[in-house]
Design a protein that fits this description.
The protein is 17% helix and 46% strand. The chain is an alpha+beta fold. It folds into two domains: 32 residues; 149 residues, no CATH class. The strands form two sheets. A seven-stranded antiparallel sheet has the order 1-2-3-6-7-8-9, with no helix packed on it. A two-stranded antiparallel ribbon has the order 4-5. A hairpin with a 2-residue loop joins strand 1 and strand 2. It is globular and about 75 Å long. It starts with a helix and ends with a strand.
Length: 182
């Protein structure tokens, strides 16, 4: 009976220690890449994007830390989510109202932006690869990347009114990507 008591105490202590370590790591990770939510509400549009904002911190980002031609979680930590309360049109394709995970495949001159119907709790798998499963992609759009003259230190997603809808802009390091949405 005494052995069982010590086993239970040890297991409970270990669980508390692991939980504390997890929360500590989560806090430190969020401190380096804080959460952000951007919204666009106008007319029939009601869109929100939740993401985490990593910083350059002196590193080479695109083509190095984030390789060209590979799926990126489009932020840090959790997978970025895109929520719309109405159907949207992206490059002639319908994106039904709903919540999507947002993924990108950066390139030196062209990016692919992917709206995926599966929700992922974290942006990468245990193998440090993007969690995205291609069979759940609802809309894929290709857009050109623009070089910007000054370094954009922190990854930023913006939703900008264009008069004929809005534009989702992704900006970080020396790149800006614009996706028109109606």
């Amino acid at each position: 009976m005494k052995v069982l008591k010590w086993v239970v105490i040890s297991l409970v202590s270990l669980a508390i220690l692991l939980f504390g370590a997890f929360k500590y790591l989560q806090y430190n990770t969020k401190k380096m890449s804080p959460e952000a939510t951007v919204t666009y509400v106008q007319g029939d549009y009601d869109v929100s994007i939740f993401y985490n904002r990593p910083s350059v911190r002196g590193r080479a980002i695109f083509g190095s830390l984030i390789p060209y031609g590979e799926v990126w979680r489009t932020g840090a930590n959790e997978a970025t989510t895109f929520t719309t309360k109405s159907d949207l049109e992206i490059q002639g394709k319908k994106l039904p109202a709903g919540k999507y995970s947002l993924w990108t495949i950066p390139g030196a001159e062209e990016w692919e932006i992917l709206f995926n119907s599966k929700e992922y709790p974290w942006g990468v798998s245990f193998k440090s690869e993007a969690s995205r499963e291609a069979e759940f992609d609802v809309v894929a759009a290709k857009v050109y990347s623009e070089k910007v003259p000054t370094v954009i230190e922190q990854f930023t997603i913006s939703l900008v009114n264009t008069g004929e809808g809005f534009e989702m802009q992704l900006a970080w390091e020396n790149q800006l990507v614009r996706l028109p949405i109606k």
